[in-house]
Model the fold of this input.
Amino acid sequence: MNTALLLRHFPELKELPAERQEAILLEAHDRAYNSERKLEHWKRNVISLIWVTAVSLFIALVAGPALSLPRVATGAIIALVVLPAFMYARHRQYLGLIRPEVEELLKKTGAR
Done:
């Protein structure tokens, strides 16, 4: 996990030393993705897969032909719009999962 990239999403960690920032982010990740929540994560992953597949198939099979788009343009829309939007949404979801854990760790350590 690249904690340097994650730090920009957690400005509340900036006043802490670099080692402590990394430790808090790693601990928050471990707490958010512990084995007790495994089924919840699988469910979220399957739902996301269904959504991205459904949207891609809709664009490829319905919207593309309805707008008389060539197959290459339809594929480009999927590759340049749908998949990056999916990755952005998953990243926001990931941040939403670890943010409460970071806040709880900060409260516990009294760093806030």
Notes: The radius of gyration is 19 Å. The chain has a mean pLDDT of 93. The longest helix spans residues 71-109.
